[in-house]
Design brief:
Length: 785
């Protein structure tokens, strides 16, 4: 039987640790139990004799010498415990006297990773039975890696409505492929009715509403719950309400309560584990898939992706929801259900379930594990490391204290250019790892066995890597091939998931929060990248072309303003082929390694602008704009400048984009600048003058300084609004200072501020290349406003 792991748990029993895996299968949900397991961690064999005096009367453990070594080449022993809680207690005691390795690996994960099982699993044999629930259970089966086929999950979009304090429940809405329901607290009537394509359940109390919802959930039996802040708000608030009312929070497939944990770095962030189900938050998944929006509010994202939006929007929505609950419960039901529908459609449009499934299948991490680059790396790496003969280090073991440098950025040449080509190294850091055999295990082998030069590949800071036993390059090769297969088959979610995983490997090795951190290993990646970018710049110089900018894995090459634009694409492809040949030959001769570096001709800018750092003569970094040519088609592309930054007003963003476009297309600029300035002072652009900024700290923490968005937030608070850390504040600059947008009616806006701070700065750099600036254009026509 094939299955996909939805949730994983462990229980200490009198006969050992019982592992519990809830699976989605084609036949329905199944609970797999693996009894009589042990938890294991590792110590040096030389410290085994200290265990009896240190542990005293502790029971339920045993120790065994193993054919493994520590990262410092000490022979290793395994300490095995019949209870995970006992293992944690014993490891804590031992840490005071000796090094302890891998004590933080939980039994459910270790069981899977050592069998190379990710999320897809094959179940063989075992004892099938039922414990009175609807879900079949199997005990002590054989588990094998599955075939990674994409599951057909049952999904439900969930949203709740409450009063502004989230203390009183108004309604719960759900939306699925065959489900449209709203459970409404309505003391005046009961029963249910079908209307407008959904079923409205009128419940006499909050308790009745919750029980009706849990009964429906049990019958519909979804695998996945989705929503917008569904974990941090909806499910957490439901938990609090259930506790207040004494209702069993029966989210689990077996009726069990979910369990919660808080983020150690952010106490306001919570994670939920539901037996047999998964909760996926749309905001977190979109960010993990590298979607970028000016705002991740449901209204903004839905408008951007679907062209549709919420039935209520803007400030004051909380009061309106309360009013609807009191006066128009049917309209509140429509609003509640519409939010569910929007989330459902966003998940479909972005294929987020397929993306999360592919990422889970590639990494072994649970579906709802957001981020988790270090955990994903360890899941694949640890079992292979053990077979190489090593245990993994602990976080903080590395005593090397110098920092690994970041990506290399070439000095930019500011100005306005014609015919600029961009060349990108495809997945540069993974390519470097493959090419130069960079790997923690290979580093230890080279060091411990003192291998001669011909058996290693040299790194930086005296690092060297054994040629014949590296783990990480092989993992990347496997992922690379799988990504190529995914591209050929058109599986975009899988391709994107693999790309994110591959590109995370350097970040893992370069972070001191990872157990494998060693700056000698990480620097052997980044410094090689520096060398490659510098050598590539020299190569282009030798070809007679000028590199005007370069950043980590890309170079911007100026062919010359008089170069034939119709030949640029052909020349770009030819240069890329020649450069790839150059690297093949150079690395074979210098290091005796095949080159996996692959440079691609990426973009042709017929016009390209690199600004100066404001107030300086040097060129900026990671900020540029240009006119991209794609055959006969062209478009303005802007990176890092104000037009693509949400902390500038819509006026500044639109103004910059239009002026840049006019310059790039050789169209007149002066009259447009004058027209916009005149419209600004005439009050015709007021809707574009709103600033939008997030509160990064609680409002009371802003003591020494009071920036404009904080001033506006305090005015909102004084007006009775509930203002919290993380809230977005919309404000305008009036003649009386910063004021909330919602409280600015009747106030005169400070148009001179917007002219000086929003119009002039965003275009002066480009206008300077034409021999003028914003103020000169305005002064010639109007004088000072």
């Amino acid at each position: 039987m094939a299955g996909f792991i939805l949730s994983r748990h462990w229980h200490d029993t009198s006969t050992g640790i019982e592992l519990e895996y809830w699976l989605h299968t084609a036949q329905g949900p199944v609970c797999v139990r693996v009894p009589e397991q042990e938890s294991v961690f590792f110590i040096a064999q030389e410290n085994v004799a200290q265990l009896p005096p240190l542990l005293g009367l502790q029971r339920g453990w045993r120790v065994q010498n193993l054919s493994l070594a520590s990262p410092t080449n000490q022979p290793i022993a395994g300490v095995y415990c019949t209870s995970y809680r006992r293992a944690r207690e014993i490891s804590t005691i031992l840490r005071r006297a000796m090094p302890v390795w891998e004590a933080d690996v939980r039994p459910p994960e270790r069981f899977l990773m050592e069998r190379f099982i990710k999320s897809s699993v094959s179940v063989v044999g075992g004892q099938w039975h039922s414990d009175g629930t609807q879900v079949p259970q199997v005990t002590a089966p054989g588990l094998r890696p599955g075939d990674n086929s994409l599951p057909n999950f049952t999904v439900v979009s969930l949203d709740i409505e409450t009063d502004m304090r989230a203390a009183q429940l108004f309604s719960i809405a759900v939306w699925g492929s065959e489900a449209r329901h709203v459970f409404m607290v309505d003391e005046t009537c009961g029963g249910q009715r079908s209307l407008e394509g959904f079923t409205l359940h009128n419940c006499a109390s909050e308790t009745a509403c919750l029980e009706a919802f849990f009964n429906w959930l049990h019958d519909y039996d979804p695998d996945i719950l989705i929503g917008w802040s569904v974990v941090g708000f909806d499910l957490w608030v439901l938990d609090r309400i259930c506790r207040r009312l004494g209702v069993n929070y029966a989210l689990g497939r077996d009726g069990r309560r979910p369990t919660w944990r808080q983020d150690i770095n952010d106490r306001d962030k919570r994670y939920i584990t539901i037996p047999g189900r998964v909760a996926l938050d749309g905001i977190e998944l979109l960010r993990m898939a590298f979607y970028h929006f000016e705002s991740f509010s449901l209204e903004f994202v839905a408008r951007a992706l679907l062209g549709d939006g919420k039935l209520l929007k803007g400030s004051g929505r909380g009061e309106e929801i309360t009013r609807l609950y009191q006066d128009d419960k049917l309209q509140l039901a429509r609003y509640n259900l519409k939010d569910c529908e929007l989330v459902w459609e966003i998940f479909i449009a972005t294929q987020l379930i397929a993306f999360a499934s592919a990422k889970s299948q590639m990494t072994g991490l649970p579906l709802d594990k957001i981020g988790g680059s270090a955990a994903a790396f360890e899941f694949s790496y640890l079992p292979r490391l053990h077979r190489l003969g090593y245990v993994a280090p602990s976080i903080g073991d590395c005593a090397i204290d110098f920092a690994s440098p970041g990506g290399y950025v070439l000095e930019s040449q500011p100005g306005l250019f014609k015919q600029v080509l961009v060349f990108d190294f495809k997945s540069l850091y993974p390519s470097i790892i493959r090419t130069f055999n960079i790997d923690p295990g290979a580093f230890w082998v080279a060091e411990h066995k003192q291998l001669p030069a011909e058996q290693v590949v040299a790194g930086f800071h005296d690092a060297a890597f054994a040629r014949d036993c590296a783990i990480l390059p092989n993992l990347i090769t496997e992922l690379w091939q799988q990504r190529d297969d995914a591209k050929r088959s058109g599986d975009q979610p899988l391709s994107q998931a693999i790309k994110i995983i591959m590109n995370s490997f350097y970040g893992v090795l370069g972070s001191n929060l990872c157990r494998f951190y060693d700056p000698r290993v990480a620097s052997s990646i980044t410094l090689r990248g520096h060398e490659i970018l510098q050598t590539t710049q020299q190569w282009f110089d030798e070809q007679g072309f000028t590199v005007i900018y370069g950043d980590t894995d890309s170079v911007f090459v100026w062919l010359g303003d008089d170069f034939d634009p119709h030949q640029c694409a052909t020349v770009g492809q030819s240069l890329a082929r020649k450069l790839n040949d150059f690297w093949q030959q150079r690395l074979a001769q210098q290091y005796q390694v095949p080159s996996y570096l692959e440079i691609q001709f990426e973009t042709h800018f017929s016009r390209f602008f690199m600004p100066k750092i404001r107030g300086q003569e040097t060129g900026s970094k990671k900020r540029y704009a240009g006119l991209v040519q794609r055959g006969e088609q062209s478009e303005v592309l802007i990176r890092g400048l104000e037009a693509v930054r949400s902390d500038w007003t819509a006026l500044a963003r639109q103004f910059q984009r239009e002026v840049f476009g006019r310059v790039f297309y050789n169209q007149p600029v002066e009259q447009y600048v004058l027209d916009i300035t005149a419209q600004l002072h005439a009050g015709k652009l007021d809707d574009l003058l709103v600033y939008r900024k997030r509160l990064r700290r609680p409002l009371e923490d802003y003591e020494a300084i009071s920036p404009p968005h904080v001033q506006a937030a305090r005015a909102l608070q004084a007006n009775g609004d509930d203002i919290r850390r993380g809230d977005w504040v919309e404000y305008v600059i009036t003649l009386q200072g910063a004021r909330p947008k919602s409280l600015s009616s009747g106030l005169l806006l400070d148009y001179a501020h917007y002219q000086e701070k929003q119009l002039a700065p965003v275009v002066d750099g480009l206008l300077a290349t034409l021999g003028t600036n914003y103020q000169q254009l305005v002064d010639r026509q109007y004088g000072l406003f």
